[in-house]
Design a protein that fits this description.
The complex is a heterodimer. In chain A, helix 3 packs antiparallel against helix 4, helix 8 packs across helix 9 and helix 8 packs across helix 10. Chain A is elongated, with a radius of gyration of 31 Å. Chain A has 3 domains: 284 residues, no CATH class; 113 residues, no CATH class; 59 residues, Arc Repressor Mutant, subunit A, CATH 1.10.10.410. The N terminus of chain A is likely disordered. Chain A has 16 helices and 17 strands. By secondary structure, chain A is an alpha+beta fold. In chain A, 35% of the residues lie in helices and 18% in strands. In chain B, 36% of the residues lie in helices and 12% in strands. In chain B, strands 1-3-2-4-6-5-10-11-9-7-8 form an 11-stranded mixed beta sheet, sandwiched between helices. In chain B, 62% of the residues are buried. Classes of the chains: A alpha+beta, B alpha/beta. Chains A and B meet through strand 1 of A and helix 10 and helix 11 of B. Chain A: Pfam families: GatB_N, GatB_Yqey.
Chain lengths: 549, 536
Amino acid sequence: MALTFFRGIKTCPLVHYPSAYFARKNGFFYCTTGSTETQFATQEKQQSGDSKVVPKTYRKSPDKLLKDYEAIIGIETHVQLNTSTKAFCGCPYSYGAQPNTSICPVCMGLPGALPVLNSKVVEYAVKLGLALNCKLSMDSKFDRKQYFYPDLPKAYQISQFDVPIAIGGYIDIDLPVEFGGGHRKFGITRVHMEEDAGKLLHTGTGNYSQVDLNRAGVPLLEIVSEPDMRTGIEAAEYAAELQRVVRYLGVSNGNMQEGSLRCDVNISIRPIGQQEFGTKVEIKNLNSFSSVSRAIDFEISRQVQLHSQGQADQIVQETRLWEEGAQKTITMRKKEGLSDYRYFPEPDIPGVTLSEEYVDGIRSSLPELPEIKRRRYENMGLSMQDVLFLANDINVAEFFDATIANAADVKLAANWIMGDIAAYMKNEKLSISEIKLTPLELGELIASIKGGTISGKIGKEILFELMAKGGTVQGLIKEKDLVQIVDRSEIEKMVDKVLADNPEQLKQYRGGKTKLQGYFAGQVMKASKGKANPKLLNQILLEKLNTET
Amino acid sequence: MLSSIQNPRLLRLSTLHQIPLRCLQTSTTPVPTPSSPQPTSQILRIRKSLLSRETTAVEIAKTFLSRLRRTEPQLKSFLYVSPEDGVLKQAEEIDRRIQNNEELGPLAGVLAGVKDNICTSDMPSTAGSKILENYTPPYDATAVKKLRENGAIIVGKTNLDEFGMGSTTEASGYQVTANPWDLSRVPGGSSGGSAAAVSAQQCAVSLGTDTGGSVRQPASFCGVVGLKPTYGRVSRYGLVAYASSLDVIGCLGSSVADTGIVLQAVSGHDKFDATSSKQGIPNFASQFIPKDYLDSKPLKGLRVGVIRETLVDGVDPDVISSLQRSVSHLEDLGCTISEVSFPSFSLGLPAYYILASSESSSNLARYDGVRFGNQVFADELSTLYGDSRAEGFGSEVKLRILMGTYALSAGYYDAYYKRAQQVRTLVQKSFRAALEENDVLISPAAPSVAYKIGEKKNDPLAMYAGDIMTVNVNLAGLPALVLPCGFVEEGSSVLPVGLQMIGAAFDEESLLKIGHIFEQTLQGYSFVPPLVGDDF
């Protein structure tokens, strides 16, 4: 099949650079020629959100069989940093921009251009290293990782090889309650700085591909875990916790759909009790936490089945792709020996030396991290369900913290946030920072209810007004005349009037139909326009009902 | 005026001073050399004649351009020459500024050649490679930008060995430059075009690049002054990388002062080059004391170390003689001469070739035919890469990419790259120690004078051996100045010999000062090649 390779313009000295074109052959750049797996049924499709992990059981693999095996799972995560410019040049990066509009001689790898390290990248790497309890390399350096690919303009990636900026840390996670809960600690092997590559755009019908270099040179942190995870859920939670950490730190938006957080999973199985590891398989194309979990569970089943059928030799070292549609992993490329990246120290970038003061400065500016927050919430007496919900999103957690900072009741604040406020945010598709309600007013609202100024029912009404339009609790109470009636004589007057207006029902009540108490209470509340203190109302009502005049 | 080669005033020089050097062989053959007054700064002369309204920038430009047109068919020093109207327009602008008494840059009206591996936004920049044929970068290298800001007029792009890999310009993807002193000989390389252009006065000064001697060796072969600054003194931004940790942009001129003035213009930290230094830049021009103001021992107390390992078997005896005469001359100027030994000296050459090849294998990987330069049609990606590179690169480049790829391969890294780095550290230490005991070190710039075109083309090892004098300096990142110090007669040709002075890191100042005095007091030589003729 003869195909032509061509480009728009060979060279262009103007501001706008041409995108480069070249041909591909039947998805040439991805060797995804189709599944080689026929012995496995596809899993039923499950849709679930980004943050929720759905368990799955594999139909053809009875739990009994799985129990004899142990899976060894390690994850390599790439986190795209949200620095205002790229790692080695002054180009900004924004996801979804027009192709080749955010490029310069440096990130295009033009002859003579040189990389200059963005100091923010080091700062973010140190932040993450500290947050992951790592030991920092006070003297680290960059290396070149060399391979040819059209999305890699210099034909080498500036990365860190033998001296990564951070090594030997760990991350704490709390498994979701619905999966049995429990606390885990997973080791972090290393964190290193590197640059992202560009993107290939494969035209659907054309016989060529195009290169978009907008993403080339965007800073990444690669986080390599120890092979400490054993299940899909653990792996997904590890990834979710990493996302939480980078979001708490503000170093990345951690968005998996946009590729700001990418997970490659390494997985092998071995019979329980066996010391040596099985053959490792890598899984790519995991675009959500649920796909991490499901892909791993699928892969465990696949490998266990092969192993148990005496076909362990068919588990080969390879890279497999997770197919979201088919809910299975398929072979992407077999590893033909170890690839030799010919790493050597990057001569264009001087070594990175950290000073104690620099590190201390960053350490003292770290926010309260998810794990610490969860333990603090736990110590406040909140349930694990509440703890996980509140600490999941830094903005929610900050809202909660700000609310209780004003001496609001902890449990009530949690309930309001997780109940009506969360529901409202979900319905209106708003984040907590987008609603008009402030933590101060939520605290005020809770205090007003607790102090009896307004009823819970009115509190709810005010809440929606506050979320939609803003304003203050005091202002709304005044404006709408919503102050609870706690004056005994005033309520007595209303009760008397209701009893007088309903002689028939009163007669029935006194005749033994005591459940009519609710009717009277409703009438009195209606007369008070909902403002009567319910406790007081009932007390007075009972007294009057049971007192013959 | 200088067309006849006359017997020089050799009497003084032939009374050779016996110095404790091995291989002391005195050449008794009187070398015929032209005689002339001392070399003067072209830049200062141009400036003076402009400010005094003696002539105009347009006139000066025309003179250079006409000489360039006349000599270029024989020399082939340029890969690209700026259109005449463009050059004259820039000259007119300078004349206009003079008319209006506006401020003039230090290089106003100075025609400069730029080696073609240095990016220019208005001229192709091919690095002498077919893989970049017709490639014009979208930006000026920092050094070029600074030249322009200082008033220089870029007259064209000079020939080189492809990507700077070579010592003769024979490895250029386009043409072989001839030596103005003998057209059948090489001008040296890789900055052979830049050296030949200055030597033949096709331009007043030029920029070259020096990775292992590529400014200094051609300066020596062509009888011009070549300055290799300290690594980091001049920004590499826009220098098409060969070996990033060794590459330096250097200056070529017909006098020491000219190279100093050009260095002044192009030096300095650049935010686009993380390896460029923030070291302060001294006023290099203040070093140039006019000859009439020098006392009889102007270099009194200066400690000069002669590197013993550069005067051994394999080095042309005539070159050694020239060096010895230079030593006598320095002694006459008041210097204290001693001999310095570098046990690691010979290790520098293999270490250099491993490191430079390794880095080049990586730096040249970007020429893959995808985004710019030569692209070969192919129906598979690996074929696109392979064919584009096979067609675009010359054999010397391929040889070095292969060597470098091998040296960096898994299993070989420790034996080659890592060991070469250890040698590099050793070389750096040796230089540091030697420069603690001496103010400058001297050696020949090359083991021979310019050789015949084709003579070493098929013997890469012999060619590489020619770099023995210069590569150690790059490994150590030190500054070095090469200036003509004598002549050697080869058949009917008279060929210049270069003296290399090596200084401490960021001490170009001393080199320029000593070099200037040496040059101003050297009697009996004129380093203007016969080719230039009477019009200069």
